[in-house]
Amino acid sequence: MDALLVANQLAPYVTAAVGAYGTAALTRAADAGADATVSLGQRILQRLRGREESREGIDEAVQDLAAAPEDEDFQAALRAQIKRALLADAELTAEIARLLPVGGTSFIASGQGAVAVQHNSGIISTGSDTTIQR
After folding, report:
1. 3-class SS at 30?
2. Is residue 75 within 8 Å of residue 65, measured between CB atoms?
3. Nearest-angstrom CA–CA distance, 49 and 62
4. Backbone phi, then psi, for 93, in 5-degree steps?
5. How deeply is 77 buried, as exposed, middle or buried, from its count of CB atoms within 10 A (0-12, 13-18, 19+)?
């Protein structure tokens, strides 16, 4: 299992969880009310934190990202911590890879006003002051 590939695949899920819950994503149990992306991100974070050697780096990166969820540098720093943890533990990499969706196309939208669709034949509006004329 390629740790770098897995890290890149799971980073959007973890970022979505941190965007939704901030630092509470570190300790909060998977929320039944959360969408699938956020819920998976929470489970991945919990599993990554289960590795003692990685916990501090993951926690610090999550705290930074929670303070500025749109900051690409903090997103990259969290991805780097995830990669470090996965490169150090092939078993963890395989375990987390099994959590990721298999086959097909997946779409992840995270952040305020984010939208992810495969096909849309209508209007998608996330603005609070939008006028749509027909």
Report:
1. coil
2. yes
3. 11
4. -60, -50
5. middle
Q: What is the rounded CA–CA span in Å between residue 15 and residue 89? A: 21
Given pLDDT bands bounded at 50, 70 and 90, which one contains residue 100? confident
**Average of pLDDT values for 78-106?**
86
Q: What are phi and psi of 39, to 5 degrees?
A: -60, -45
Element (H, E) at 95: helix 90-97
CA distance 22 to 24: 5
Please tell me the total number of residues recorded for the chain in this structure.
134
DSSP tally for the chain: helices H, then strands E? 5, 0
pLDDT digits (tens, 9 = 90+) for 110-134: 667 777 766 677 777 777 777 777 7
